[in-house]
């Protein structure tokens, strides 16, 4: 019997965080009370039964390599689905990373000095070289899946995922190198966008359906370095505009177009990494590292410059739980299910967008809806509080409007003397304070738990 959510051997699911076209993302924990939080990725949850055996064999080939990684910055596997369990969904368990993404760092602090951009890029290359030694490539490097924590350590997320999906889904969903050749950027748009949320970082061979390899990661590293140096991308516009520009070679690949203080040698290295033809790029990541190492600053300098911005923020805190899963024993689970002893999670087949409560309820069985509403009191109380706050805010706004406009209305009616005060000068403009982007934006995790859905206890 096929299960809709993974049942882990050494870990336990705690919440469903995201539903994407090609995967579901869960938060989990070790079964020891003092164990760390883990990240669980269920791949290809809606794959047809006819494709399951071949996919499981390929999954084992790809992720047996990932299991050999030892660098913590590569997120080594803690657990994966067993090849002997034909009914088990395909899943990966890694430690939940922490830190700020490179996108968050640049948005908060702007472009990095060349020495610190080289430091970050060199550390990313070290992770990629370690993974490549085990036969693991990335293919999807972008500013959102590289993290820097409060100690300046780099973590690369998504290693090995895109190569597996591309190899397996070619001919199944149309995502992958084209057997007939030619660009196909329109393949299953939702699935493509979930894999490549940053169009300017997608290598041209990915778009054109050409052979992929280590040069693809050289391109991704070049796009990342360009962004760190300039806080922007060499291509702008919608994904279709960007992809057409990438394939045609249009676009200003020289980062000095945005920042003329970048030294020529570094600018030329970035342009070489972003070459349309993989053969024109540096031969490998080691060559890029050798060029960056003399220019790279130290981790201490990175922390001195960006210490207030770099925080060990849990990566999974960026997701608001769709469902919080509660174990089937103990005082927190008073409801007994009448259904089979399976993990009670609806089999979502959505478009990848967060599902509304109505959509979730529509996918639940009567037992699941009963469990859902059993824990709805807190949500209703929160809604009532929000309503009261809205009424108070509306009253305040009404009073402000009345105070602001009532004198003018009275003057128009001739009931008050005209206002003869001089008009405000331009110097009296309303200057609003600029928000501190470095301030902590961690939400109160107690308010982010999401609705509860209890798990049945296996018989």
Concise overview:
The chain is 37% helix and 11% strand.
Structure characterization notes:
It is globular and about 80 Å long. The strands form 2 sheets. The protein has a 7-stranded mixed β-sheet. It has a domain of 307 residues: Transferase(Phosphotransferase) domain 1 (Transferase(Phosphotransferase), domain 1). Strand 2 and strand 3 form a beta hairpin. Helix 3 packs antiparallel against helix 10. With 459 residues, it is of the alpha+beta class. It is 37% helix and 11% strand.
SSE layout:
Layout: E1 11-20, E2 23-30, E3 37-43, H1 49-66, E4 77-80, E5 90-95, E6 100-101, H2 102-109, H3 114-133, E7 146-148, E8 154-156, H4 161-169, H5 189-195, H6 204-208, H7 214-230, H8 239-248, H9 264-273, H10 285-292, H11 299-306, E9 323-326, H12 357-362, H13 366-374, H14 377-412, E10 452-454
Parallel strand pairs: 9-10
Antiparallel strand pairs: 1-2, 1-9, 2-3, 3-5, 4-5, 6-7, 7-8
